[in-house]
Amino acid sequence: MIGSASIPRFSLLDRDHSILAFNERVMDWARRPDVPELERLRYLSIVSSNLDEFFEVRMAPQLAAAKAHETRGLYTAQTFEALSAKVHELVAQQYAIYNDELLPALEKKGIKIVAHSERNARQRRHVREIFHNEVQPLLMPVGLDPAHPFPQVANKSLNFIVRLTGKDAFGRENEIAIVKVPRILPRFFRLPSVKGSRQIHFVSISSLIRTHLGDLFPGRQVTEFSQFRVTRHSDLAVDEEEVKNLRTALRKGLQQRHYGQALRLEVSAGASTFLSDFLLEQFGLPEACLYRVPGPVNLVRLNQLIDKVDAPELRFEPYLPGWPLQLTPGQSFFERLRQGDVLIHQPYESFDAVLSFLREAVEDPDVLAIKQTIYRTGAKSELMDLLREAVRRGKEVTAVVELKARFDEEANINYAERLESVGAQVVYGVVGLKTHAKMLLITRREAEGLRRYAHLSTGNYNPGTARVYTDLSTLTADEALTADVDQVFLHLASQNRLARLNKALIAPFLLHKAMLDKVAAAGEAAARGQDARITLKMNALTDEPLARALASASQQGVKIDLIVRGACVLPAGVPGFTDNVRVRSVIGRLLEHSRVYHFRVGGEEEVWLASADWMNRNMLRRVELAWPVTDPALRQRIVDECLNAYLHDTRDAWLLQPDGRYVPAGQGASGRQRHHLQSAQASLMARHGGKG
What digits encode the pLDDT tens for the residues 647-665? Predict the structure, then answer.
């Protein structure tokens, strides 16, 4: 392995700016005229959701550095200013698309969000009835005075600030009031359409309340108002070494998550300086944290409007995944796996096969034990019901539940308690590490003795996301690999030293060093004149040692192709450093999520699947699993479907430039040429599935 001292130093790209660049690529789908209008609106809401999480997780150290006027280190006042400027630019683009492109496009298709000035008399009566019957009873305006200080405002909640004239019931001139909007209220209400019109009309909750704010303050006049929303730091920090019960500690932490440090304040574009300054002071935020938006302060909630519209022509055509190519419906999974491994490419092939595999194990009297990791499974999980049923049928069930899966903590705590209530063995992995490996192990009594069967995946056991995330699953009865999986479960439950594994690589013990070694070996081979190629597909590449190792291998002559959906800190094509590195990001209808590591050195080829991205946290602070694909046919299929297809994508792919910019792979294509651009996702959907 090449020592770090011999790896040339050059500037990697900034991770936070790379995350924002990813969101620009997602937002491009909201602009695309070939995308149905409601789907364009959904992409815009996805960007808002991503930005929310960006602030909740990434911005606290930046803001702290700005407040402390830091000039050195990773986070400084200058990095905060540069990042804030970029976010402001991104948000301005969002609302320009929303107001100038999407709202007019939707109106042409018969869907309109009707402003107060545009409502006819019938609609105004309807809005008044909704307000008085469904909304006002749930609103509690709070007038601010020494006995009523500024109220606690929950993370990402919708609120109004109001300035009043006149005196209250006690003769005092308290001029500021706050109105919280309960999350339980719908964000959009259907309105009666204009007679003879086929348009579908809606009113937003913010417009509805704004119209009737005066009704909340009888005897006083509203002179100014603004909707507002504050985003808070929401990454739970629990000292696992100190707490006696992680589950209890996390439950307490969840109660405080909604009231963490304020990081961003969104207000209406027309909010007065008086109101915005008042709010900034209340939340202790500098001017750079203020976002004036010409529209709803929460574009994430546009999903509610999308769900209320019954217009199939404004959505993507439904896609029905095919049954996995290697499986025959009705055939026993155990019988099939004794013949060889099975690969499932989701969502082109149905995730239902994985549930069927578990269901057969639950119902089979010869299955003695089931072990599974649980990271994200969705709000309502058939998988959880199957595990509970397995316990009721007398099987030994062990669940490794990751309580610290970000924003899924509460659901996972509830699942853990439900499993324990029926007698399952529930463990929470290793102190200080998240268990991110996706593993299911089944032990069955057969004529020859006990035999293991496993399912390993690059993605979560979540049927909902399995319909829109691209992932790879391996079903196997390979004795060496299933023995490895059993050892990992034993390690997680017992905390004993991990035994030597046969085939698999596990983080944080082996994976990082193994990948560095493989990159170095490719570089050394290229330096000797051998053909060497590395192709990697993942969600993010932000680990500095791995990025620099790839740069070093590039200088030695290794041809490197990186298919990285999100943040990538390794710039492509930097003269003298990454001349042989190409980086592309594919943003499509589906969310790219599979992790594939491909090394070809001389005549030797390796293909690995993994749960891990090449990020420091995945390599050193999580339990992750990577496993080799040894079947030549399956290996070639992965190369064809997950690597080559994406390397030839010209419709949904973006190419990273040396300066960190991304340009569309099909940039410059004329209208006729765009018709012939290649989409890896569209091709795979056509090959494997059907249309609903």
Answer: 999 999 999 999 999 999 9
Model pLDDT, residue 410: 63
Decide: helix, strand or coil at residue 226.
strand
Q: Do the strands 367-374 and 396-401 form a parallel or antiparallel pair, or are they unpaired?
A: parallel
Do 448 and 437 touch, CB atoms closer than 8 A? no
Domains in the chain (CATH in brackets) are: 15-314 (3.30.1840.10), 333-500 (3.30.870.10), 507-688 (3.30.870.10)
Query: Distance from first CA to last CA of the chain, Å, rounded?
Result: 51
Output the CA angle 430-548-585, nearest 5 degrees: 85
> Alpha helix (H) ranges present in 152-214?
205-211
Specify the amino acid at residue 180: K
Mean pLDDT over each residue of the chain, to the nearest integer: 89
Q: What's the pTM?
A: 0.91
Say if residue 408 is exposed, middle or buried (CB neighbours under 10 Å; 0-12, 13-18, 19+): buried
Report the pLDDT averaged over residues 466-471: 93
Taking CA atoms, 527 is separated from 154, 248, 417, 521, 603, in Å, by 58, 55, 56, 10, 16
CB 414 within 8 A of CB 476: no
Residues 407-434: what's their mean pLDDT? 73
- Token pair 């309109």 is found at 112
pLDDT in tens, 519-554: 999 999 999 999 999 999 999 999 999 999 999 999
Rg of the chain over Cα atoms, rounded to whole angstroms, equals 27
pLDDT given for residue 244 in this prediction: 43
Measured N-to-C along each axis, helices 382-392 and 352-363 cross at an angle, to the nearest 10 degrees, of 10
Residue 375 assigned ligand-binding role:
no
pLDDT for the residue numbered 461:
84
Q: Are 620 and 507 in contact (CB under 8 A)?
A: yes
Q: Report whether 133 belongs to an annotated binding site.
A: no
Catalytic residue among 436, 455, 491, 688: 436
- Measured in degrees and rounded to the nearest 5, phi and psi for residue 642 equal -100, -20
Q: Is 648 annotated as a binding residue?
A: no
Indicate if 436 belongs to the active site. Answer: yes
| Ligand-binding site membership of 376 (annotated) | yes
600 has binding-site annotation: no
DSSP assignment string, 535-594 = EEEES-B--HHHHHHHHHHHHTT-EEEEEESS-B-S-SS-TTTSTTEEEEEE--SSEE--
In Å, how far from its chain's centre is CA 52? 11
Q: State yes or no: 565 annotated in a binding site.
A: yes
Q: Are 567 and 591 in contact (CB under 8 A)?
A: no
Q: What is the pLDDT of residue 401?
A: 81
Q: Is the pLDDT of residue 389 over 70?
A: yes
CA atoms of 65 and 77, how far apart (whole Å):
6
Quickly tell me which residue has 């999974």 as its tokens.
333
Tell me which H or E stretch contains 494: helix 479-494
CA distance linking residue 673 with residue 70, whole number of Å? 50
Query: Which H/E stretch holds residue 353?
Result: helix 352-363
Alpha-carbon gap, residue 174 to 146, rounded angstroms: 10
% of the chain residues with pLDDT over 90: 74
Instruction: For residues 15 and 38, give the distance between their C-alpha atoms in angstroms, rounded to a whole number.
Output: 31
Please tell me the predicted confidence (pLDDT) of residue 381: 76
- The region of weakest confidence among 200-214, 223-237, 452-466 is 223-237
Tell me the CA distances in angstroms from 275 to 7, 289, 333, one per residue in order: 53, 15, 64
Q: What are 223-282's pLDDT values in tens digits?
A: 999 999 999 998 645 444 444 444 454 445 545 556 789 999 999 999 999 999 999 999
Give the start-end residues of each E strand in 147-220: 159-165, 176-180, 188-191, 200-204
Given the structure tokens 């009666």, which residue do they identify?
Answer: 192
SS3 248: helix
Secondary-structure breakdown of the chain: helix, strand, coil percentages, each rounded to the nearest 5? 40, 25, 35
